[in-house]
Amino acid sequence: GVDIAGLNSLFSLLRFICIYPAYLNNKKTIAEGRRIPIDKAVENPTSTEIQDVCAAVGFNVLLEKNKMYPREWNRDVQYRGRVRIQLKQDDGNPCLPQFPTRKSVMLYAAETIPKLKTRTQKMGGSDQSLQQGEGGKKGKGKKKK
């Protein structure tokens, strides 16, 4: 009487980690949910940005737009959302060897989000030099919402 298919889908969900924008936000304290050092964190990252950088490096990513971080008092749309990322394959090995832990994914996302075109353009576009190496990434995650 065990539902093997149901168990398997449960286990495969366990291979997905959840990342809330709060984890990477340098405006938050550890108590408010930040999980990486403040000097590595980003100003108000969005779930879409996290999704973009993780999808670009090859992760299997799900964006859950209406999930709220439980400790987030601000109900604003920009603070909403959570990203599920498949960290492990069914055999328990990392999907991407360079990202063995959820921490490594968070640090990568926080490091990469500031380089997103949407971010660098807001700065007045002076630092185009950052953008040269990113030719192959166009069109990723740009589907119409």
TrEMBL record:
<keyword id="KW-0963">Cytoplasm</keyword>
<keyword id="KW-0539">Nucleus</keyword>
<feature type="compositionally biased region" description="Polar residues">
    <location>
        <begin position="121"/>
        <end position="132"/>
    </location>
</feature>
<comment type="similarity">
    <text>Belongs to the SRP19 family.</text>
</comment>
<protein>
    <recommendedName>
        <fullName>Signal recognition particle 19 kDa protein</fullName>
    </recommendedName>
</protein>
<dbReference type="GO" id="GO:0005786">
    <property type="term" value="C:signal recognition particle, endoplasmic reticulum targeting"/>
</dbReference>
<keyword id="KW-0694">RNA-binding</keyword>
<dbReference type="GO" id="GO:0005730">
    <property type="term" value="C:nucleolus"/>
</dbReference>
<dbReference type="InterPro" id="IPR002778">
    <property type="entry name" value="Signal_recog_particle_SRP19"/>
</dbReference>
<comment type="function">
    <text>Component of the signal recognition particle (SRP) complex, a ribonucleoprotein complex that mediates the cotranslational targeting of secretory and membrane proteins to the endoplasmic reticulum (ER). Binds directly to 7SL RNA. Mediates binding of SRP54 to the SRP complex.</text>
</comment>
<dbReference type="GO" id="GO:0008312">
    <property type="term" value="F:7S RNA binding"/>
</dbReference>
<dbReference type="GO" id="GO:0005654">
    <property type="term" value="C:nucleoplasm"/>
</dbReference>
<dbReference type="Pfam" id="PF01922">
    <property type="entry name" value="SRP19"/>
</dbReference>
<keyword id="KW-0687">Ribonucleoprotein</keyword>
<dbReference type="GO" id="GO:0006617">
    <property type="term" value="P:SRP-dependent cotranslational protein targeting to membrane, signal sequence recognition"/>
</dbReference>
<dbReference type="InterPro" id="IPR036521">
    <property type="entry name" value="SRP19-like_sf"/>
</dbReference>
<feature type="region of interest" description="Disordered">
    <location>
        <begin position="117"/>
        <end position="145"/>
    </location>
</feature>
<keyword id="KW-0733">Signal recognition particle</keyword>
